UniProtKB/TrEMBL annotation:
<dbReference type="GO" id="GO:0018580">
    <property type="term" value="F:nitronate monooxygenase activity"/>
</dbReference>
<keyword id="KW-0560">Oxidoreductase</keyword>
<dbReference type="InterPro" id="IPR013785">
    <property type="entry name" value="Aldolase_TIM"/>
</dbReference>
<dbReference type="GO" id="GO:0051213">
    <property type="term" value="F:dioxygenase activity"/>
</dbReference>
<dbReference type="Pfam" id="PF03060">
    <property type="entry name" value="NMO"/>
</dbReference>
<dbReference type="InterPro" id="IPR004136">
    <property type="entry name" value="NMO"/>
</dbReference>
<protein>
    <submittedName>
        <fullName>NAD(P)H-dependent flavin oxidoreductase YrpB (Nitropropane dioxygenase family)</fullName>
    </submittedName>
</protein>
<keyword id="KW-0288">FMN</keyword>
<keyword id="KW-0285">Flavoprotein</keyword>
<keyword id="KW-0223">Dioxygenase</keyword>
Length: 367
């Protein structure tokens, strides 16, 4: 499974793992891949500083990366309180009535938090500054190219920059801006994703950017066979995400047992691509919460970051309730293969073993 990216990043396998859990990220890096910590959940810079220090100390000297979110459109500055004035009252009313209808209880007195400020451009920039004071080898932006000055700043620190793309034209734009690695994220993926499936998208982007720019295949990758398929399409490695939700280490972050029940029973058809999570199209697990937003009379989701600010407290309440029928959970179509909870090291070992079996099968067919 070794590709040039392994030597470039000092990893054993070209498996990049996005996760909001530092425990998962560290375990992936220790197992030979590249764990990439999602920073969007960090409102408090001190908390991110503490978490990255923990990663520095718990990866056995192995490399890791960070993932930030830099939305470029309205409104991108200010606090959640300032931005609250942009949220229509009809949207607030719909959320409150839907939570009541679904039987989601309020949080205990004094609990809860403001919207996730990591969706704001200014906060994402602070995440980059904090990260560069540590030792990541990669900074990825979930919403395409970061601003050119951010890319240049990362390069000054010897850090590579990756950007997600859902179409070849987006990949070409990223490369023109100075991005080093393109993540070709297919329609099957969890979270923010485009409209083209991985089987078509990966070779489109590989051919568009040419051999000088590494491409990571993403979307629908949860087995070694799928890793082999992505490399066969021209990718230099894979970007994975959903499969790490089903690991023992993820339990250190997820306080809601409803998540495990929800994904363990789901099939590959139990997801939906919708704007209700952040304001941009993202794939979520299909639940009563997503269905409520699709009903006649439901308001149109707001643009990022207003939609996230609108539903942040609702998500806190939903998560705390532990009801798998209501959960708001970004996950890809690979959820249908997430049938058990395993340690990260076991998942990595399976990816490698299944990849070798797939290659051996192809050699036999070719033989």
């Amino acid at each position: 499974m070794r590709t040039p990216l392994c030597d470039e990043f000092g990893i054993d396998y070209p498996i990049f793992a996005f996760t909001p859990s530092e425990h998962v990220a560290a375990a992936v890096s220790r197992a030979g891949g590249l764990g990439v910590l999602g920073c969007v959940r960090f409102n408090d810079p001190d908390e991110l500083e503490k978490t990255l220090t923990w990663l520095d100390d718990n990866t056995d000297g192995k490399p890791y990366g960070v993932d930030v979110v830099m939305p470029m459109k309205i409104p991108t500055e200010g606090t959640s309180t300032d931005l609250a004035s942009y949220i229509p009252e009809e949207h607030r009313k719909f959320v409150d009535e839907t939570l009541l209808k679904l039987g989601v209880p309020p949080l205990p007195e004094g609990e809860g938090r403001e919207g996730v400020l990591g969706w704001l451009h200014s906060v994402a920039r602070s995440h980059v500054d904090i990260a560069l004071a540590h030792r990541p080898v990669l900074i990825a932006n979930a919403l395409g190219s970061p601003p050119v000055d951010v890319i240049e700043k990362a390069h000054e620190h010897g850090v590579k920059v990756a950007a997600l793309a859902g179409a070849a034209k987006h990949a070409l734009s990223h490369v023109a801006n100075g991005v080093d690695i393109i993540v070709a994220q297919g329609y099957e993926a969890g979270g923010h994703t485009g409209e083209i499936a991985s089987m078509v998208l990966t070779p489109d982007i590989v051919d568009a950017v040419g051999p000088g720019v590494p491409v990571l295949g993403a979307g629908g990758i949860g087995s070694g066979r799928q890793v082999a398929a992505s490399l066969a399409l021209g990718a230099a490695g894979v970007w994975t995400g959903s499969i790490w939700l089903g690991t023992e280490e993820y339990r250190n972050l997820a306080s809601n047992k409803g998540w495990e029940t929800a994904f363990l029973r789901a099939t590959s058809s139990d997801t939906v691509r919708t704007r209700i999570y952040t304001g941009k199209p993202a794939r979520l697990l299909k639940t009563k919460w997503t269905e409520a937003w699709a009903e006649e009379g439901a308001p149109t989701p707001l643009p990022m970051p207003l939609q996230n600010l609108l539903v942040a407290d609702a998500h806190n309440r939903i998560n705390a309730s532990g009801d798998p029928d209501v959960i708001s959970m970004p996950v890809g179509q690979i959820v249908g293969r997430m049938n058990e909870v395993r340690p990260v090291a076991d998942v990595m070992a399976s990816l490698v073993a299944e990849f070798e079996e797939a290659v051996a099968h192809l050699n036999k067919v070719n033989g």
